[in-house]
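Hi P.,

Sorry for the delay on this. The queue was packed all week, but I finally got your sequence through. Input first:
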Amino acid sequence: MREIPLSNCERQFILQALAEKQRLDGRQTYDYRNIKITFGTEYGCCIVELGKTRVLAQVSCELVTPKLSRPTEGIIFFNLELSPMASPTFEPGRQSELLVKLNRLLERCLRNSKCIDTESLCVVAGAKVWQIRVDLHLLNHDGNIIDVASIAAIVALSHFKRPDVSIQGEEVTVYSPEERDPIPLSIHHMPIAVSFAFFQQGTYLLVDPIEHEERVMDGLLVIAMNKHRELCTIQSSGGIMLLKDQVLRCTKIAGVKVAEITELMQKALENDKKVRKEGGKFGFAESIPNKRITAFKLDETPVDTDGVEEQVEEIVSKAEPSTLHIPKPIVRAPGTGQIGEGIQNEWMIDDLEEEEEDDEEDIVPEPGAQSLRNDNERANMHTDAEVIQLSDSEEEEIIILEPEGTEKKGRKINSEEIPQISTRKIVQKNKNMKKQKKKGGQL
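Then the structure:
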């Protein structure tokens, strides 16, 4: 399913709000949305929420043969999936351009930055190493996927614990969690991606854009950094030209945001560890009664309605009156209409009247029909003679027709006595009469 584009009104509304330093969700320019981290019952499973954007992360491991070029290093693999459940624009089983870009950015942010000690994943050099697989599923899409995915991946890796192993000769034994305590991964630092959206060719800058803002933005800058202010990766997309001062400003903002997010992640990990140690409720089942996963919880905010009517009147009084005047159609009579302002529609009226007159004059009765009409008139001889007046539209002449029965009462009229007149002669005679009338009117 194709993505539904924004209308011009929505686009102009967002850009005008940005010019007034306002956002659709009420945040300031450099504000992040609320971040929520929920852990599952198993190690390495978590759900991270950034506003309405949700990502599920699951870490798994298995023993595999190492690469020939690096026989003493483990393997880390990242896989992000965009399901139609998150947005109807995502198609299942098809790698879109967005998906490829996000997967590459995750690998550069987490694997290429050497945040995990891969040498500690080696069991037997050149024979057995641990392969760590991080699966990320987008559950709901409301913008800024890369930031949520990077947070979910590093939190899941920090929460994950691999099974313990022992080596006896060439035999490798893997112990279950009941036999031996699992071992956590060796993590050097926590790189986190921070996205910056640029509008109006770099005039306006936003942190953590939502979906509607991503459709309007001209360019995107992603900076991955750890809490030590070490730059892990940087990527610019959209074809926008950025100045050196703009990039340095974004790195300073990213350093502050990464420090806050890292502190939140460490607190969440400590709380989960404490709950598991005390034997309390933990996992997704604990968060279901509080509706943290099954539904979005809206925070109630008081609305001040004092002086609203005065503000409305002030806004209406300052508003400029509309200069557009749309005339209404005037209906003169039932079944007739008028086009324009006070101008009657006379288009093709004269031609239609002339065609109707020509049709009436061209009709010539047949001899049989004339005889039948005379018989009907003779049967109604006792009625008084009626006078019919016909008015001509051009010269308003009055023609008086008298029934033939009043002059010849006892005479029979046969159809043979009626002269056979050619239809062509009658039509030609009528046209000649019309031409003479028009000439007389012009004189």
